[in-house]
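[Automated response] Your request has been received and processed.

Submitted sequence:
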Amino acid sequence: KPAFQRVFGLARDRGASVSLHTDGCIVDVIPDLIEVGVTTLNPQDLVNGLDNLERLAELYHPEVQFTDPLHQVHGLAALEAYCSNLYSNLKSVRFEFSQCSPVDDEQALLCWTLYYRHPRLAGGREVSVPGVSQVWFRDAKVYRHRDHYDAGALLYEHIPLLGSVIRLLKRRLT
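Generated structure:
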């Protein structure tokens, strides 16, 4: 950890971002990687994604409040059920984190891009959606998590017929 901190610190001091790709299971060391200065994390999703939902309890407070543009979930069991149901319909899912910024001792902002494939959306092609998460900590766990992203870019634009209408509206408004 100290060696990474020195090397990544040199890069960050010169204005560079630090990107890390790994094919290994790194779920346990993600907080350490953020602490030593990794700004973009690209983990291999088969070892860090869908089959790690049981590990949510290690990161989230039992009374977590999760909110995104489409859902509001209260409690760890409800968050686990929400994620399990959501991910069960996907062919693949991964997040690439481009920035992790602490706001203070109790709050952080995470900038990310979600990549997913759903068999009935976008013709089964990969869809990417940028977003930002605000997270608040209590007892060293996330107790409030709020995601900000374009729900149209995530879902509505990729539904047959409805997607065409939304894309037309977006073109006319820009």
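Summary generated for your ticket: The radius of gyration is 17 Å. Confidence is low (pLDDT under 50) at residues 44-48.
If you did not submit this request, please reply to this message.
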